[in-house]
Amino acid sequence: MRSIQKSLQEYARGIAGGLLFSLPLLYTMEVWWTGFLAPPWRLLACVAGTFGLLLGYNHYVGIREDATFADVVVDSVEELGIGFLVAAGVLWLLGRVTLDMPVAEVIGKIVLEAMTVAIGVSVGTAQLGAGEEQDKGRGNGASGAGQGQDQSQDQRRAAGERPGEESVSFGGQVVIALCGAVLFAANVAPTEEIVMIAAEASPWRLIGMVLLSLVLAALILYYSDFIDARKHVRFDRRHDVLLGTVITYLIAFMASALILWFFGRFDGHMPSTCLAQTVVLGIAATLGASAGRLLLQ
Amino acid sequence: MKTEKNWLEWTMFAIGLALILGALGYLGHDALTMRDEPPHLVIELGAPAPRRHAFLVPVAVTNHGDATAEDVRIEVVLEAGGVRERGEIDMAFLPRAATRRGWVTFHRDPGAGKLVARVLGYESP
């Protein structure tokens, strides 16, 4: 059994992670508005989608190496619960939910904000901890921690001392890329600026944005010697690079469309504007997806 | 399960489960029972209060419809002794079941005349 102190530390890391990733959203008025503008079935879909992402992330990356499916479900429920509590607390402190508001408005705001907080909690619990034998993930926690530490980790890896660190399966990569894309893109998705850029962009600019996204994905995943890239990404052959880049962009594109739909950004717009918005947000989602594949493991 | 959970983690799990089920239950109930009525705004005027240069009249607007009204514009007209005085107030958002409050001001004493309030218009967000 884990000690109380250890679980408290995990919750503290989770809350820190949740706030780190979602504070911009807690401070964005378009998100508060979406809380009461979104129909209830869309909020339900949002909760279901987030829970699915949490299950996936906890299954492939989560803090416990030997987790069974029941463990993963229990952890995900805890993280979603922390998400609700943190979102409710911060929204109350900011004066965005009060007791004299209609129940629908209060619940809508809290549910919507709690989703990114919960993903942040999950990532924070798994990634922000110091390396302990029970913890998986990148162990040394701080990404920029001294060269010597990185080297020693590389040596251990080369010697195959940590069998738990083998690279994650394709499904796992997809889930991790999705988490990264959602965490990063959700911060700008609800803003008016995305619609504005999309409505004003010429087709050439949009093509340019697609190309920029692809180049960014390729650079981050394959050519910039990003943290742990050698470990998580295959680059034996040239077509691995091409395939990996395109798949990452596809995941980012889907995540971008989903988030925009959640925030009601497709309501009342022509399909061409929706597509343009997806491309505009796609750059942010690609950054999140490709960096996420390396950082959130 | 290899790693056994302690009481704190089980408590957190129970709280999380209760919150999730509560939110799902509420939203599910809401999704099933929600009709598709347009915004229905009802204005209530409070008692006028004299200030140094003006009279304040509290305005409370409640949305009894199912949809949110955006950019709500409300007009309050005071007719006293054959003279009309107009007051106006704008509200950014009025979600369903929500009440927003504000004030309109008049030069003349509203107690001496008749106040008529109406919603001029609003947008669908």
Which key phrases capture this entry?
heterodimer; A: 297 residues; mainly alpha; 12 helices; flat; B: 125 residues; alpha+beta; four-stranded antiparallel sheet; three-stranded antiparallel sheet; 1 helix; 7 strands; 22% helix; 46% strand; elongated
Could you characterize the architecture of this molecule?
The complex is a heterodimer of chains A (297) and B (125). Chain A is an all-alpha fold and 297 residues long. In chain A, 72% of the residues lie in helices and 0% in strands. Chain A has helices spanning 4-26, 29-37, 40-60, 69-93, 103-127, 147-158, 170-185, 192-200, 203-223, 229-232, 238-262, 271-295. The longest helix of chain A is centred in the N-terminal third of the chain and has 25 residues, at 69-93. Chain A is flat. The two termini of chain A are 25 Å apart. Helices cover 22% and strands 46% of the residues of chain B. In chain B, strands 1, 2, 3 and 6 form a 4-stranded antiparallel β-sheet that branches. The model of chain B has no long low-confidence stretch (mean pLDDT 90).
List the helices and strands and how they pair.
The complex is a heterodimer of chains A (297) and B (125).
Chain A (H helix, E strand, L loop, with lengths): L3 H23 L2 H9 L2 H21 L8 H25 L9 H25 L19 H12 L11 H16 L6 H9 L2 H21 L5 H4 L5 H25 L8 H25 L2
Helix pairs in contact in A: 1-4, 1-5, 2-5, 3-4, 3-5, 3-7, 4-5, 7-11, 7-12, 8-12, 9-11, 9-12, 11-12
Chain B lengths: L6 H27 L7 E5 L3 E2 L4 E9 L5 E12 L2 E12 L4 E8 L7 E10 L2
Antiparallel strand pairs in B: 1-3, 2-3, 3-6, 4-5, 4-7
Give Rg of chain A in angstroms: 20 Å
Indicate the low-confidence ranges of chain A by residue numbers. 133-165
Helix content of chain B: 10-25%
Task: Name the poorly predicted regions of chain B.
Answer: none
Number of strands of chain B: 7
The dominant shape of chain B is: elongated
Main β-sheet of chain A: number of strands, strand sense, barrel status? none
* Class from helix and strand fractions of chain B: alpha+beta
Oligomer: heterodimer
